[in-house]
Amino acid sequence: MSDAKVKAVLFDLGETLLTFGKVDAVGLFRQGGQRAYDFLREMNQPVGRVGCFLRKHLMMIRLYHIWSTIAGRDFDSSELLRKQTQKKGVKLSAEQWKEFAWCWYAPLSKFGKAEEGVKETLGKLKAAGLKLGILSNTFINAASLERHLEQFGLLDFFDIKLYSYQFNYRKPDRRIFIDAASKINIAPENTLFVGDRLDTDVAGSMRANMLSVLKKAYTNRNKKVPGNVIKIEKLAELPGVVEKINNGCKV
Asked: Taking the model in full, what pTM does it have?
């Protein structure tokens, strides 16, 4: 692999590794809030009325989302929800807080689907000597996301898992791509980035001098794709793409 062009593959998460499709975000948040409320009640914690509980938490996330859009950086929603709940006197163990966070995410997780044969695809990439990683824009805590990936048996394939709320910037800022390449110890020009969004995944990875692959998704439907971007319909195409690049063939 010392002379290979591609030595690492980084993946976006939503609509790339896992497909969710268009969802009712507010409705799912309310469902998650109800689950979180019920969980706290089961733990005999002081939570007050469910309506007030849901309104306060939804308003807080909305305000931080607005701030996030203006600031160009993400936040850890689980940490915010925990601090808001602690103000009411709720006390939980570290593992219980993780379960509390999962309650909020669980309704959305039910929509997540993994491509058929994705484990075999990732296995082929690893067998070819490639390092694999995840780089995702998100305000959802790593513990919940990685619990979801583990349900599909995908978590252990990745050498690094990076989420934008852990940084002071997010995609398409080229710095987050460069940081990811540094953490996986592969030069950006030897890194293939796979994502579904032209405005964040493609634009940012190209600015960082990575090879960019756009996976077909509803998020890029009917959009003009630059000619130097590799297009795939399924992740199963990636081993062939890498082989062609490393053999000097046109993709």
From this structure: 0.95
